[in-house]
């Protein structure tokens, strides 16, 4: 029995406190076809925002099985993907010091319908769950 207590105390003395980044996004937004959309993404973190903080955005088109990574922000610089479907339409709209990881997409089209995933990392904090926004592109004049 003393061996179990010794091992338990060794285990407990080496546990590391881990905190989490909490990512917040609206559940769903409606965007008129042909207009620009800001995809809001904010987060909370108990750690100071450092140069190691990063943001990645992915897109899962309706009916698709897996998301496609299309934007990365790291060390104060945006890295928009060069591939279709968002070529030359992504703008960084956030400010990590204000815990904002938002982006804007210009000229939204019906093919842009789907789920957008915002993933924030701020080491040593870890992300429990990325934020997800369902975007519905609708005809002009039909936004609720």
Automatic annotation (TrEMBL):
Residues 2-134 form the Ig-like domain. PROSITE patterns: IG_LIKE. One of its GO terms (cellular component) is cell surface. It comes from the Eukaryota. CDD domains: IgV_P0-like. Belongs to the myelin P0 protein family. This is Myelin protein zero-like 1. It comes from Podiceps cristatus. The lineage of its organism: Eukaryota, Metazoa, Chordata, Craniata, Vertebrata.
